[in-house]
Amino acid sequence: MTETAFKALVLRQDDEGKTQAAIEQLGQQDLPDEPVLVKVDYSSLNYKDGMAVTGTGKIVLKWPMVPGIDLVGTVVDGGDSDYQAGDKVVLTGWSVGEKYWGGYAQYQRVRPEWLVPLPAGITAIQSMAIGTAGLTAMLCVMALEDGGITPDSGTVVVSGAAGGVGSVAVALLAKLGYRVAAITGRESTHDYLKSLGASEILSRDEMGARSRPLEKSRWAGAIDTVGGDMLGRLLAESDYSGTVAACGLAGDFKLPTTVMPFILRNVRLQGVDSVMCPAARRIEAWKRLASDLPQSMLDSINQVVALEQVPEQAAAIMAGQVQGRVVVDLQ
Ligand code: NDP
């Protein structure tokens, strides 16, 4: 049975429009009117959650908001859906934690179409070590594959490599047999990145500097979480017929580039979105994560925190101080 009162991190706007985050005791009657009731086991902390909790940018679209764009848990009541009480389910994206209440609560009500059954071979905690960041990393790898990039094509470079998306991308690519170059701004993460399988480490300062329209080609593929001049450089340094998967804006949302990489080197720039990603591709990506991400690596790329620690961890992710993935324990 469900407890009468449970914990949630609730964001409210004060009179000056500032975001205030506090742990509150909620009851079932406070939850949104959605069909499926889930007892949440774990959530995770993504860059977007950091933005929501710290009130950076316009992530939260409705107030009050329970943030947390990812959750894993057990169905308590499936409503009229195909889900049954006891089913283990994962939710990432769909504007949950932005427009709809999300994972930073011990119970949540959600729509069945947002849910994916917890894939075989992945535990609940591992699914949140993966979370939106890991799903996005997998979708980026699949985007490179769609562009015809294989381990024989040459080196694949990952920017923001020590972050959530970047670290899972490095681990996935290395496991799949790619030679991986990792771009990071933090020297303290070099050993960590090598342990994930990076063969080469490049400095964020050097790679994030404005490039010429075309530079010496050196990358068969690229996964970019940073945007701005970094993405411009990765395009300018692409091999002929290289693919660049762009998923993030940790550095800048702008894209200073020219048509040169596209018209002279046949370069493909593929955008990657995990939020509205169609169910079939999502299920495929989760399957691939279960098979392609080494569990030992998965265990090494996460730290587990309590709900009470989320505000400080949110500030840390905004300051670029988080290494790998942060899992939030709601049990
Ligand atoms: P993290 O904060 O965990 O990682 C981002 C990394 O980028 C940091 O660890 C740091 O890596 C690097 N970085 C931070 N600030 C800067 C800067 N000013 N200039 C250059 N590099 C910087 O975030 P996530 O991995 O969760 O997300 C990464 C990006 O991807 C974000 O922009 C996020 O919004 C986006 N995203 C997009 C999704 C989609 O569906 N398209 C889904 C998930 C995330 P290092 O220290 O190694 O340099």
From TrEMBL:
<feature type="transmembrane region" description="Helical">
    <location>
        <begin position="114"/>
        <end position="144"/>
    </location>
</feature>
<dbReference type="Pfam" id="PF00107">
    <property type="entry name" value="ADH_zinc_N"/>
</dbReference>
<dbReference type="InterPro" id="IPR013149">
    <property type="entry name" value="ADH-like_C"/>
</dbReference>
<feature type="transmembrane region" description="Helical">
    <location>
        <begin position="156"/>
        <end position="178"/>
    </location>
</feature>
<dbReference type="InterPro" id="IPR051397">
    <property type="entry name" value="Zn-ADH-like_protein"/>
</dbReference>
<protein>
    <submittedName>
        <fullName>Oxidoreductase</fullName>
    </submittedName>
</protein>
<keyword id="KW-0472">Membrane</keyword>
<feature type="domain" description="Enoyl reductase (ER)">
    <location>
        <begin position="18"/>
        <end position="328"/>
    </location>
</feature>
<dbReference type="InterPro" id="IPR013154">
    <property type="entry name" value="ADH-like_N"/>
</dbReference>
<keyword id="KW-0812">Transmembrane</keyword>
<dbReference type="Pfam" id="PF08240">
    <property type="entry name" value="ADH_N"/>
</dbReference>
<dbReference type="InterPro" id="IPR011032">
    <property type="entry name" value="GroES-like_sf"/>
</dbReference>
<dbReference type="InterPro" id="IPR036291">
    <property type="entry name" value="NAD(P)-bd_dom_sf"/>
</dbReference>
<dbReference type="InterPro" id="IPR014188">
    <property type="entry name" value="Acrylyl-CoA_reductase_AcuI"/>
</dbReference>
<keyword id="KW-1133">Transmembrane helix</keyword>
<dbReference type="InterPro" id="IPR020843">
    <property type="entry name" value="ER"/>
</dbReference>
<dbReference type="GO" id="GO:0043957">
    <property type="term" value="F:acryloyl-CoA reductase (NADPH) activity"/>
</dbReference>
